[in-house]
Amino acid sequence: MTDALTLGWAEWCALPTLGLPAIKAKVDTGAKTSALHAFTIQPFGPAGRRKLRFGIHPIPERPEFEVYCSADIVDQRDVTSSNGETESRYVIETPIRIGPYEWPIQLTLSDREGMSYHMLLGRQALTEFPFEGEPLVMPSLSYQQPQLSYDVYDGLSKKAPTPRSLRIGILTREPNAYSTRRLVEAGETREHVVELIDTQRCYMLINAGRPEVHYDGRCLPPFDTIIPRIGASITAYGTAVTRQFEAMGTFCVNGSHAIAVSRDKLHAHQLLAREGIGMPTTAFASSPKDTRNLIDLMGEGATIVKLLESSQGKGVVLTETRKAAESVVDAFRGLKADFLVQEFVKEAGGEDIRCLVVGGKVVAAIKRRAAPGEFRSNLHQGGSAVTVKISKAERETAIKAAKVLGLGFAGVDLLRSSSGPKVLEVNSSPGLEGVETATGKDVARLLMEAIEKRAASTVRRRRRASEPGQL
């Protein structure tokens, strides 16, 4: 390029790596540094590679329109404005594109809300112009380079998001568990900052103006994404914390309602049945007077009695005879426990299929086989796992089951029966170790890719919470 770059006192430009395809800048050779309007500026990340998360209103006339960005911190310096006030500002470096030219410049971040131009282009950015001939600024003219349009933002959400570092929180009480470690590893490999949050250590400020989650004596900053790993023992409190993040507008991989429904096996089965999804015949009753009638609904043969909020195969009992079923039911009633009675699908042969669903796709599937003398195929109960090829019907059933419950990340357990696949359970916090070990697939990476597509969407409306659970 040999033509000189001629600029007026105002120009259209783009900051592509920040996801800003069009922004008006005031060209001011009297100012040394360049500045970009930003709000909610939050530093994050470990020492040595600190980053910033910040929001921008690229269209001054539309403050309800927000773009969220992240960038490495280059510096932090004091900047004196034209009115003599000194402000400490973070400095980032990013490419700028004006007309046919693109080169890296440094920008200080400052709240320029209310100003006509949300970007100021100073002389340092012009003197560092790397092409032949320093840009010529003509203060009496404006828009000497091709004019852009704010219309590009209207269709931006339909395009691939601009990659950026995300601040991801994992709600968990098991920081050393395999699944937790793999999610942290996968996130950091992709330049995200992943923070572990002990669910029970969170406490909440609930108000109409600004809901907050506090942790270890401080208010938690905004997160781009929360991955809830809520244990069955703290479902109620865990969903309350997740719900608070949703109220703050944070995208949660699995929403609070979806987690609660998946944990309540009765509710989950009712929803699945309503949508015509195959499952073992299931019965539920409250009164002890209905015990015999309840078991009669199962017909002859073995039955399964399971607690409504059981997990990992715990609280699940196989009864071979009617009398045994009545004894187990009476014992559960004595404990004041809620439970289901379900048919035992004998043709499954102690095997089930675990399908991992991420963002509406089955990304991995394994066949779990019960240990000798055991009917439960859960790996926590000594079962074994091998990779398996699933049928189209099984794939569609798993995807539909996760969608019906509103889960963006789910483990769907299927039984192979003579009448087709039957959903045994839908897990909102599936483990990764068995699936990754058996299949060799990097499921943690696939989940991070899905999060990037959903949470990194460039434009969102102010004070509009993300739709939970839809990756």
Automatic annotation (TrEMBL):
The keyword Isomerase does not apply. Its cofactor is Mn(2+); Mg(2+). Keywords: ATP-binding, Ligase, Magnesium, Manganese, Metal-binding, Nucleotide-binding, Protein biosynthesis. NCBIfam families: PRK10446.1 (NF007764), rimK_fam (TIGR00768). GO terms for molecular function: ATP binding; metal ion binding; ribosomal S6-glutamic acid ligase activity. In the C-terminal section; belongs to the RimK family. This is Probable alpha-L-glutamate ligase. GO terms for cellular component: cytoplasm. GO terms for biological process: SOS response; translation. InterPro entries: Asp_endopeptidase, ATP-grasp, ATP-grasp_RimK-type, ATP_grasp_subdomain_1, Peptidase_aspartic_dom_sf, Rimk_N, Rp_bS6_RimK/Lys_biosynth_LsyX.
